[in-house]
């Protein structure tokens, strides 16, 4: 039986890895380890289909070390012993241990001395947060790297490679893939390359050839094979971004019905990752200090949605959409930081005042560092009038409160009070 396309297209060297350039790109940490042949054990965590196994196999291929794959949940201590024996004979073995968060104490105790000696280079793969789910003894002996969902353009690149590769891919098949079908495949799989390649292979092998012998893959075929509808049939691909834009603007404009409509379109297209991310952005960009409780509730709803997955994720997210729509709005936080960033980018920086500079070293006082600093906790109401901004910016005011929510009204009153004190 032929192995799935996603398995066959797995990279054999670090140069073939698609995505995860923050780890394997030029000058990045895993690339440096491979180039220097100074590998250390690591844990790769992130969503399914984002390249954890691919990175492990690419590291093995680039370093020419033996490569073995086991599952922490289903493989036994005896399986680990076989790998350890091989490591003693060959010198070093790279062990990809899937579901590493399921590693029990017996297997862990067996592995630890082999990790210490470097005979086994462990690459643990997990979808769970390793800081919460993985035993500290393993964590302390590994570096932890997060792998991220692939970008649509990265999935498109991988799909094109699969279509042209005659040895491992579908290059021997006369496939014509419509641009809108490719766009949908790249976007609707949520950064999961395995799902994209499996959907592509199913489409290619289940679609009858046309009269001229070509296999023509259209958008409806791709929708059926990945079981996700496109947001709109849209040749230029703008509809994807238009719906997301309309979703945020509907919430910002407090139109509950429109926001729920666009949310439904995103749900129907399987765009859970984008929907969750956009709601977090909206909560802090458009609601902000007018209703901080709504921001916290949004975070909780997104966490629930990610654990539930679709279709159940629609329930907490719908509550959040209604909550955000009907909440008072304030963009004062984003406006304040953008104003500060604007000054920095224009070169409006200036020297940190001497009394605020670090004074925790010998000789600092001779350089006037920290001299004259007034410790606010020594004063009534924990406030003292002293200059904090650099001289050239000392009269700059970035934060301009909005008065749409009760919480920010309180903040505005406190700010006004402090500024009045300062003026006196």
TrEMBL record:
<dbReference type="GO" id="GO:0017116">
    <property type="term" value="F:single-stranded DNA helicase activity"/>
</dbReference>
<dbReference type="GO" id="GO:0003677">
    <property type="term" value="F:DNA binding"/>
</dbReference>
<keyword id="KW-0067">ATP-binding</keyword>
<dbReference type="Pfam" id="PF00004">
    <property type="entry name" value="AAA"/>
</dbReference>
<dbReference type="InterPro" id="IPR051314">
    <property type="entry name" value="AAA_ATPase_RarA/MGS1/WRNIP1"/>
</dbReference>
<keyword id="KW-0547">Nucleotide-binding</keyword>
<dbReference type="Pfam" id="PF16193">
    <property type="entry name" value="AAA_assoc_2"/>
</dbReference>
<feature type="domain" description="AAA+ ATPase">
    <location>
        <begin position="38"/>
        <end position="150"/>
    </location>
</feature>
<dbReference type="InterPro" id="IPR032423">
    <property type="entry name" value="AAA_assoc_2"/>
</dbReference>
<dbReference type="Pfam" id="PF12002">
    <property type="entry name" value="MgsA_C"/>
</dbReference>
<dbReference type="InterPro" id="IPR003593">
    <property type="entry name" value="AAA+_ATPase"/>
</dbReference>
<dbReference type="InterPro" id="IPR027417">
    <property type="entry name" value="P-loop_NTPase"/>
</dbReference>
<dbReference type="GO" id="GO:0008047">
    <property type="term" value="F:enzyme activator activity"/>
</dbReference>
<dbReference type="InterPro" id="IPR008921">
    <property type="entry name" value="DNA_pol3_clamp-load_cplx_C"/>
</dbReference>
<dbReference type="InterPro" id="IPR021886">
    <property type="entry name" value="MgsA_C"/>
</dbReference>
<protein>
    <recommendedName>
        <fullName>Replication-associated recombination protein A</fullName>
    </recommendedName>
</protein>
<dbReference type="GO" id="GO:0006261">
    <property type="term" value="P:DNA-templated DNA replication"/>
</dbReference>
<dbReference type="GO" id="GO:0005524">
    <property type="term" value="F:ATP binding"/>
</dbReference>
<comment type="similarity">
    <text>Belongs to the AAA ATPase family. RarA/MGS1/WRNIP1 subfamily.</text>
</comment>
<dbReference type="InterPro" id="IPR003959">
    <property type="entry name" value="ATPase_AAA_core"/>
</dbReference>
<dbReference type="GO" id="GO:0000731">
    <property type="term" value="P:DNA synthesis involved in DNA repair"/>
</dbReference>
<dbReference type="GO" id="GO:0016887">
    <property type="term" value="F:ATP hydrolysis activity"/>
</dbReference>
